[in-house]
Amino acid sequence: MANEEKQPFTVGSKSFTAVAINTAAKAGEWIKSKLGDFSSLNIKTSPQDLVTEVDKGSEQMIRNLILTHFPHHSFLGEEGVEPGAAASIQALEEASEAEYLWIVDPVDGTTNFVHGFPFFSVSIALAYKGEVVVGVVYDPNRDELFVAEKGKGAYVHGRRMQVDRAEKLSDSLVATGFPPDRSTALRSNMKGLEAMVPQVRNIRSGGSAALHLAYVAAGRLSGFWEVGLNAWDMAAGTLLVQESGGKVTDTQGRPYHLGVRHVVASNGSVHDEMIHVLKEAGGTGE
Ligand code: 2AM
Ligand code: CA
Fold first, then answer.
1. Nearest bound ligand to the CA of residue 207
2. 20 to 30 A Cα–Cα from 167, which one of 48, 87, 120, 128?
3. CB-ligand 1 contact for 171 (6 Å cutoff)
4. 257 and 175: one domain?
C-alpha cells in the first residue's frame, strides 16, 4: 500500500496515439482561435525568427495534457529550448537518455501564423529509446489530422496514406523551406534551390516543415528537403512519410535519426535523384 501511494496518478487505458491525437487537436483549435488576435511578438535569433505567446501557450497546454497522462515521460518542446542550433543540439542530447520522449512543435509555421497565412500545424511525436513510434501532425486550418504509428501505417481523415508514384524528378512537385539561419542554411538552400528548380515540375515553400512532410506522406508532394531544421520540426512528419511507403534520410543519404538537421524526404523513387542534385550543387548544408 505504501508503495502504491508513492505512484503518481495516471489516467488509465489511454493509448499513446490517442493522447497525441487529442492533444494536437485541442492545441490546434486553440491556435486557430488566436489567429490575428495575439499581442506580443518577440524576435528570437533574428527578425526572421519569431515567437508569440500563442507558441508558448500551445506548448504549455500540450505539455500539461501529455504529462497528466504520462507523468514519467520526458518532454522536448521548441519553446523550452533557447534559440539557436547549439542549444537545440544540446537539448536533444540531454533528452535522448529518456526511454519515452515526447518531441513537440507547438506551432510549426510561426511566421505564417504571425502573417495570417493559413499554413501552420501542431506536431507531436513520441520516441521510444530514440526511435519515433507515434507521429501526429494537425492542420487546424483545413482540419486535417495526419497520424502514424510505427509498423501500423499512416492515416488522414481515417484513410490510409500512400506516397505518390512519380518515378522521376521531372514529374515531381517538391517543397523546401528557408529557416531563419541566414549565415549557413540560407546559402546552402539557395544553391539547392537553383539546382533543383530546372529538374522538377515545380517547387513550393509553404513554411511548415511538419506539414510538408505530411504532404509527402499523403502523396501531394513527391519530395521535400530542407537544411537547418530542428528535431521537433521533423520527428512526427518523418514517421508519416515512412509509414506511407516513403523514405527519409539526411541530405547525404544516411538514415534519419532524431539528430538529423538537413533532411530529404520523398516517395522513395525520386530520393536518389534529389540527393544527387543537392550534392552536385553544394546544397546539402554540410
Ligand atoms: P517553426 O515555425 O516552428 O519555427 C520553415 O522553413 C521551417 O523552418 C518551419 O518548419 C519552421 O518552424 C522552421 N524554423 C523556424 N525557425 C527555425 C530555427 N531557428 N531553427 C530551425 N528551424 C526553424
Ligand atoms: Ca515552432
1. 1
2. 120
3. no
4. yes
